[in-house]
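Supplementary notes for students who missed Thursday's class. We covered one full example, reproduced here. Read the sequence, then the structure, then the short commentary at the end.
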Amino acid sequence: MKKKFLLIAAIGVLVMACNFLMPTPTQEATAVPATEAPAIGGIAAKLDELGGAACDENPDFTCVTIQVPLNHFDAANTETLDVVFAVSPATGERFGMFVQAYPGGPGGEGISSGGLSWFSDAILEHYDIVYFDQRGIGLSNPLSCPIAFEANFMGYLNASDKAGKEGYDTPEEQQQAIDEARIYAENCVAEIGIEPAKLAFFGTDQVAEDIESFRQTIGDDKFMMYGVSYGTAVAETYAAAHADHLSGLVLDGTLDLTLNGEQGSLSQEKAFDKVLVATLEACNADELCAADMGGDALAVYDKLAKQISEKPLAYEFPLPSGEKVARTFTFNQWEYNAAYQLYSLSGRMMYLRALAAANRGDFIPMARLTYQNLTVDPATFEYLGDDTFSDTMFLSVLCTDDSFFSGTQEEKIAQTIAAGQASNGTVPRLDGSVYTGLSCAFWPNSPTEVITTAPLVAEGVTTFVLNATLDPATPFEEGKAVYENLADGYHFYVEGGRHSIYGFGYDCPDKYITDFMVDGTLPTERETVCEEWGTNVIRAYEPLVLENASDYADVLETFYAVDSAIQLQPEYFYGSFTEDVAISCPFGGTFTFGPSDAGEAYAFENCAYTQGFILTGSGSYDYDSGIMIFDTQVSGAKEGSLVYTDNFSDGTISVTGEYGGETVDLSQ
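Structure (token representation):
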């Protein structure tokens, strides 16, 4: 299962990521009476007592609903709401709970996205794994304005800079951006349908207190906590208020909450731009990537970005039916797509392949990536959204937590425009995040004064800070700053790397955290470079498919190229495999993939990934055996009947059958 962390959204302007900053509460939270702690043998009886039942969206977990104050910081306010937590009990002797502030956002659902596969057996044996949907999201009193968001988002994606320059450079552009931010805020709040003032109670400080209410309901004195991406804001906020109830803390992809809204936005603009440049330079240093790119990936990116910023690109997108639909690729789509692909090494490599294809005149791979990242229907370009992510709460939490400048609404708007213009060009390629301040200026209860937050100290709490030097969304410097202020901190980081590093199967940092949680063993050093990750910027580059099958040495090499291209199709790579999906093949025909009882099922219908090699037939991928098979009839330059096998378990590939009148039996 892929770990999914979202820190990207577009609300009228490109918001590549956001910083999260909460004030220290001026009042103590209203206490919830503690109940008797679960017996050391397990939590099952407590879950039964609370009416727990298997989670519909994640049956590996038991869901329980607790009632919490709408406003934890006002005992006179008796309004409540329900928050849902999901628990997978420890399989053996219980040491306590391991609560996950997961996934990212804000806006990501924790319960539907939660899993067990990234934890060691020892952690699963001794700890209850706990996820939750924070208030306003998923199962916990969801708030949403899908109609307003879609109108705003699609308007943004389809807009072009009339002045031919990036950013809001003219008074007309600035006024339009201001009007769009106001209209979205007004329409969204109306669509949500609650008293606007109550949106103030859906910020991160309240979420942290919901976790405290859950702890008291369960009855444990202490628990372990993990926060990732925006979840580090939740975890840090909880730790600042309730350090005495934490037995340990893990912060993965760490935000520095001492930064206010505009400081965090500008920090992340620089980080995204740094990672983009590093990705393009990594391509130049890779022989295969440089060859596909024509020598200089940085020059290719800048050339295409300039062209699209001056005039949106018109192209035709092929549908599985064989029909082609006219589309336009705007500069807003270009930047959004580029930023989205920078979170992981695989994403960066896939972006480079699409960039190389675009440089050759084939814009379809870039369009496929864009449709996936924008969550739009390739056939209609209608917004589909992500069922596990709340676009509404992304902005609501951000604007509730953070101060983007100060003063009156008009003063904050003016300061936002000025900051956007000042940053435009100083970050050459990916900027504009600070314009989020326009939307926040119109959001109910957005702070009028600058919010300041003291550095997290977490006295008495062993805290692990995890990050990477090429994390675009939660910059390395922010995690480093958090670590340096901790009373008992340990810093694990990757040179290069990606956004978040826990749970990917590397001893560093996973084993260090397991050893601490299970045996109480502490690292010998305060700072550790996780060298086993290497220093890679991108996943090993996989070249584009050659245009003609005759350019390959043999039919096995041809099949392997097709195999690789399928695996790197954005629709396939990011697919959920819950239903059949048909996509057009580059040189005609269709490829269909979907779920099967054993894993995945495929169908080829006159499908050509390279000219002269047309496939019709079926295929499968068996998850248990790790074997992928294509059983096909081949036409084109030659005809035949071939079975291709890719054994992921041992890394071998083979093809057998008849092709061009000859017997084929090749393997490697």
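Commentary. The longest helix spans residues 261-285. The longest strand covers residues 58-69. If anything here is unclear, bring it to office hours.
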